[in-house]
Amino acid sequence: MSPKLPVNNSQTITEFFNLHKEDLHEATTDESYKFAFADEAFLARKETMGIRFELELLKPDILLREHGIEHTITVFGSTRFISHDEAEKRAAQAKTPEEQFEAKRAVDNSHFYEEARKFGALVAQYNTSQSNSNNKLHICTGGGPGIMEAASRGAFENGDQTIGFNISLPREQKPNPYLTEGLSFRFHYFALRKMHFMLRARAIVAFPGGFGSFDELFEVLTLMQTHKVAQLPIILVGKTFWENSINFNLMMEYGVIERTDMKLIHFTETAEETWQIIQQWYQLA
């Protein structure tokens, strides 16, 4: 009996573009005569994966430099949190017990959205006091809804540039409307997206979130623990959530992390506390 091992364990670029096997053969002169850089089927081949990696690394880097973006604060968090006003509207419209339960939870969690929005505003207000762009810190997120939208919104409403690193998903995630024109990017590869989260990051701010937020947070913690990147403040907003979700004390008891590793992490509850840690770390005026 032949083993039914998969050819690959990820969504390939050919699947993403909905290209069929016959599209990749380029058997006709019309197909083979295309410029390589203009041939979508050729660029989608397995052999050109390294080129696609390079392009996803290069494109945002060039455009961010052209916009004078040198330093960012990367904000993670749930896509599901909504503003207090929107949560109150849903509560008023809820009819069934299930809808009422979901609406109450949305209201309870909306303070995270509002704190992220305040934090974005505080960063933007600092930037207005800086004439040198090299001293500015810009809000960078995954570009989607929830906490990402809230942090971008706070900065955008205060006239600052905001950056979004979006990702192609089975249920496509649209960029939120609070991203600066020309600074909203789309990735196919999570690895390259996460590289860009870190390349210019001078602080990581993580609000409560799901698998994606945990993935991004632990990537950062690992990079810092292994000295792959310089130390920078990692701030977890909502201490109760984080300590209930991740038993750091148990990890120390088992010896799988060191007590010194916990010095990488700061817990806060408000936008003001979060911004104060960053101000003190970099001695910002």
TrEMBL record:
Q: Which InterPro entries match?
A: LOG_fam, LOG_family_nucleotidases
Gene3D superfamilies under this entry? Answer: 3.40.50.450
Recorded superkingdom: Bacteria
Enzyme Commission number? 3.2.2.4
Q: Which reaction does it catalyse?
A: AMP + H2O = D-ribose 5-phosphate + adenine
One Pfam entry for this protein is Lysine_decarbox
Its name, as the record gives it, is: AMP nucleosidase
Q: What is the lineage of its organism?
A: Bacteria, Pseudomonadati, Pseudomonadota, Betaproteobacteria, Burkholderiales
